[in-house]
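Form 7-S
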Amino acid sequence: MVKKLVLSLALVALTASPTLAKTIVFATDATWPPMEFVNADKQITGYAIDYMKAAGKEAGFTPEFKAVAWDGIFAGLAAGKYNAICSSVSITDERKKTMEFSTPYFKVRQALVVPAKSAAKCIDDMKGKTLGAQISTTGHFAIKKAEGVKDKSYDEVGLAFEDLYNGRIDGVVCDDPVAAQYALQNDKYKGALKIVCIIEAGDEYYGIALQKGNKEDLELINTGIKAVQEKGIDKQLLAKWIGGGK
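Output:
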């Protein structure tokens, strides 16, 4: 009897152990500061990474992050190479046709960054100019919609900013927290670049992307996001990573 009781208690303890929480593997293109990037210690970090860690703690799952290049990130999800994507993925009607999306966790806008000496006020002033963006992002889509503007795509947004800094292109369009990181906080570019406008294109939100039909992981992630928002943890993360100005 005592032996059975000990075994039962041991099983309960193992079941309750946080190390046995479900692991959800998230792909991330960690080149998008301050949302997701690789720090000086070679660790994937950022606002979205901390957000999913907090969501996991609240909902009972363990997030694991896998660095994946943006140009293959959706194909990898479709092939089942990971469970989800946590990589500043904007929720769009087109994307919803082929994947599931979590509850939105961040509102984002597209910003235009130009050289500090530029007289441009917004994208309408860039006719005949070349604007850069990371390929297949909403920033890239915004450039393609602009009349008379040439677009140049990059595998990483940092390469676009380097070309802008060196005068090889005339502007960069990207998500506003990323624009602020490069134009206002990066020591190399600060003073040389400026944000001139927000491109109004309707409401845009980040969500976690999952394979169609993956309702189990979707429910866990949504539960975590809801708790993070209800407890105000998201505001703490905004203050930490972005300054709370959203």
